[in-house]
Amino acid sequence: MAHVLVTGGPGPTAGHVIVRLLAQGHRVRSTLRSLREEAGVRAVLREAGLTGDDALTFVEDDLVQDSGWAAAVTGVDHVLHLASPVHTGRVEDEVIVPARDGALRVLRAARDAGVQRVVSTSAFHAVGSGHGHVDRVFTEQDWSPLHGPGVDAYGRSEILAERAAWDFIEDDDSGMELRARAGATVPGRHRRTGDGRGGDRRGLEARARGPGVEGPDPFHPERRGPAGSPLPR
Fold first, then answer.
1. Where exactly are the structural domains of the chain?
2. 3-state class of 176 per DSSP?
3. Whether CATH 2.10.109.10 fits 3-207
4. Among 5, 60, 135, 225, which one is most buried in terms of CB atoms within 10 A?
5. Is residue 219 over pLDDT 70?
6. Distance separating alpha carbons of residues 208 and 228, to the nearest angstrom
């Protein structure tokens, strides 16, 4: 079984992913902005059906800080990068800088640690926003215009963060694989704030660019990496 880093531990999507990975027998390390959150996050995860609690550990990391990321990725096989600020209509630096720079911090640390695969949550904002009325199906080739109608600071943060991630991978020769998934909505309760920004992501669409990446599941040991060799079980 794999050892997986899941960023954004208190987040709703991360919580569902953590519970599922542990149920499948994987080991999970997750990031928190403060380790003071650990007890509360574990309590919510247990309510959600957490099993294998001893296979779950937490580390303290911040998307706007370099420190801690090297240790977070040490010894892991895959990274699920789910942490990103989710605030609409906010000052751009509050959402764009941590989203874009945080994604690059995670990717650099993962590459340097020899991680095989990074799966990142993007958002439908990066694909289908700002186009006006469009009578067609969006695909992985579509990008939202940065300053299109209705594209706010959060939307721009998702566009710029995902574009930066793909630019990084294009220039990288380590063979690390990237897969991004664009979610349309996240209903439910947030584990840090307790408000309505939470729950499972529904209707995820995969944006996969790179050889050998197929299928709808963001984490599947059967899928082949860029070099065409099977990933270890």
1. 3-207
2. coil
3. no
4. 5
5. no
6. 15
